[in-house]
Specification:
Layout lengths: L2 H10 L4 E17 L2 E19 L2 E7 L4 H15 L31 H17 L4 E17 L4 E16 L6 E8 L7 H15 L4 E2 L3 E7 L1 H15 L2 H5 L21 E4 L20 E6 L2 E2 L6 H7 L19 E3 L8 H8 L2 E14 L4 E14 L2 E6 L2 E6 H6 L1 E4 L4 E3 L8 E3 L2 E10 L6
Parallel strand pairs: 7-15, 8-13, 12-19
Antiparallel strand pairs: 1-2, 1-4, 2-3, 4-5, 5-6, 8-20, 9-10, 9-12, 10-11, 13-14, 14-15, 14-16, 16-20, 17-20, 18-19
């Protein structure tokens, strides 16, 4: 069933309000290993998310089966349960804040691009091996997503967008060493496969020449785009999320708007309404137009992301960030404004001086989200830089610190951001390399042995 049919069926069953968002994604993946393509896979994913009200009671459900029988069964279940629910204290009616326009972010060349994808993967592998890597593995994922929105007011919308993601990990003879980079985009013309492969191979070639050690303490840290995109997106989606602000899960309040929050050089923007950014969409789950939201501008807190519920509580208009559901808003694509540093390794390490370079991270965990206490494992190429030169490969280290450090100790960033994404990032991001002062580095348990 499509979104409009689901809403008509729900309203015929006596619900006061009904909203349906239906997504269908057709995507393909070329996996490669040992410098050779191995297999092409393809999938079609589909799901529907539905919001229903009766009085001030609300009910939502999602399903990956769009069959009419399944949808009817879900609606019947909702009908039998909603009357027994408590009234929703944050309920607001579904309203639209002005006219809504859709746009497509579609590149027709993405569909049917099998031969081109094979060529791009080969470009990346060849560039990596030319810099000194021995083996390369990864995946090129691409496809098209179609979405439809419908609600009881008669608003019916459709849009579509293409996407790709190229992730490559390079290896040498040392099984403990790897180098990893990833990029994403909407159009095939966005792909610099050769540049990506060259960077991943170069970073590996630097690391294989160095002895290994482990350190702990506070260091100047240069974060790669995958690290910066991951951590600053978490900060934005946690502390600058109106739901968390209202529920005391963020230390910020409405009174902090237009107050200094971070270093003067730091600007963070949610690019929800930029068609060229992966993750962007024209409208949200409440039928509101999405927008590009400046969260932090030159260190000053400028806005929170909101949906109808949270905007009503704060007395502001929704920013159109009901991105994945109706309860809480979310960013879709983080942008960190570039700085003045050159992005070649020698220039970056020279600017770092003495400190730590972290190419990638994963397993980010939180001790207290309101206080911004977190820990994340550094992985792939992690280097100790002394006097502007790489001296050691660091093994078994984490970044264990607070959000305030990443905000307040931001120094500068490189001048060419890249659109990056891989599976451990919260959302896609357009980010540079980011230099932060006095970041706490700790040893893992294994490194202490």
């Amino acid at each position: 069933m499509d979104a409009e049919s689901i809403v008509k069926l729900a309203m015929g069953m006596g619900f006061d309000e009904a909203v349906a968002v239906v997504r269908v994604s057709r995507w393909r993946m070329l996996r490669f290993a040992n410098n050779e393509p191995t297999v092409f896979n393809h999938w079609t994913d589909e799901w529907a998310s539905v919001y229903l009200t009766k009085g001030r009671r609300t009910y939502t459900f999602s399903t990956s089966n769009l069959g009419e029988g399944v949808i009817k069964a879900k609606l019947n279940e909702a009908q039998s349960l909603i009357g027994g629910l408590s009234e929703d204290p944050d309920y607001v009616p579904i309203t639209h804040q002005g006219p809504v326009a859709t746009w497509d972010s579609y590149d027709p060349r993405v569909e049917g691009a099998e031969d081109k994808v094979v060529d791009l993967v080969k470009e990346a592998i060849d560039a990596s091996t030319s810099e000194g890597s021995i083996r390369n593995a990864g995946a090129f994922t691409y496809g098209v997503g179609e979405a439809s929105y419908s609600d009881h007011t008669g608003l019916n919308l459709r849009w579509r967008g293409t996407f790709f993601n190229l992730a490559i990990r390079a290896f040498h003879n040392d099984p403990e060493l790897s180098s990893m980079e990833a990029l994403t985009g909407r159009r095939l013309s966005d792909i610099d496969a050769r540049g990506l492969g060259s960077r991943v191979g170069l970073m590996l070639s630097i690391a294989v020449k160095l002895p290994k050690t482990s350190v702990e303490g506070r260091f100047r840290v240069l974060m790669g785009p995958l690290v910066a995109g991951h951590l600053y997106a978490v900060i934005a989606n946690s502390w600058m999320n109106a739901y968390n602000v209202l529920h005391n899960l963020s230390p910020l309040t409405a009174k902090d708007i237009n107050s200094k929050l971070a270093s003067e050089g730091l600007t963070l923007v949610d690019l929800s309404s930029d068609p060229s950014r992966v993750g962007s969409e024209p409208v949200d789950f409440e039928g509101n137009q999405s927008s590009n939201v400046t969260l932090v501008e030159r260190g000053v807190l400028k806005s929170f992301i909101t949906n109808n519920r949270t905007a009503s509580k704060l007395g502001v208009k929704s920013t159109g960030n009901a991105a994945y559901g109706w309860l809480t808003p979310s960013i879709r694509h983080l942008y960190i404004e570039p700085g003045s540093l050159k992005d070649d390794p020698q220039s970056m390490f020279s600017e770092l001086g003495s400190g730590v370079f972290v190419q990638n991270n994963w397993y980010t965990r939180f001790q207290n989200i309101r206080e911004g206490l977190f820990s994340t494992v550094c992985r792939d190429v992690v280097l100790l830089i002394e006097g502007g030169e790489p001296r050691y490969v660091l093994k078994g280290v984490r970044i264990s610190d607070r959000f305030n450090t990443l905000l307040g100790n931001y120094i500068n960033s490189t001048n060419r951001p890249i659109q990056a994404y891989w599976w451990d990032m919260h959302v896609p991001s357009t980010v540079p390399y980011v230099l932060v002062d006095k970041v706490n580095i700790t040893r893992s348990f294994e490194a202490q042995q």
